[in-house]
Structure formats: structure tokens, C-alpha cells
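Methods — Computational structure assignment.
A single polypeptide chain was analysed. Its primary sequence is given first, followed by the predicted tertiary structure written as C-alpha cells.
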Amino acid sequence: MKRMLSLLPPLLYMALIYYLSDRPTPEILHKAPRLFGMKVVHLLEYGLLAILWFRALRHATPWSSRALCLLSVALTLAWGISDEIHQSYVPGRTARVGDAVTDLVGAVIAVWLWRLWIGHRKT
């Protein structure tokens, strides 16, 4: 039961991402430069999702840290791609390959930093 509950945070966060992407982009982000607006949001949003997946999978599986990193990034990228597809059907939103790439970059950086931090804490 505890293993199943560990999957709840990333799944709930994915539901939040879906909910937010089903709405028009907030006006404040339209006013920000593209690089500092939505790109930073994507980096942080999907970086957090990757860390949530890493933590959940660490408690739910006996896999190595490297395997957990790869799976966390893969799950995050899959969700990012599906979110872009979903946004293509939402009025006022568009699907962008660049956003999915930014999601991937955010996931890789976040998991790498998280893994470094976890390793540093153990020493």
C-alpha cells in the first residue's frame, strides 16, 4: 500500500498540469519575453515532475539510481509530449515541439541535480 501511495504525488501533479493546460495561458506570461516566460515555466514545471517521479519510483521499485533517472525522465517527457498534443485541441493554446524539448531539458537537469544532492547528503 505504501508503494502505491508513493506514486500519488507525481500523478496528482500530472493532473494539475493537465488542468492548467486546459485553460488559456495566463496574461502575465504573454507579457514576459518568451525565453524568460513560458520556457522557464516549462523548465521548472517538468523538472519538478521528474523529481516527483524519481522519488516515487525510488520508494516503489528496487531499481538502480541510474534506471530511476532514466525512467523518471522518460515518464516526464512522455507526459510533456502528451500535454503538447492536448494543448493543440485547446482554444488559444498551441502545441510546440520546442516546449517538449524544454520539458526534456528541465527533467534532465532536475534529476541530475537531485541525484547530485542526494549523493552529497549521503557523504
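Note: The two ends are 31 Å apart (CA to CA).
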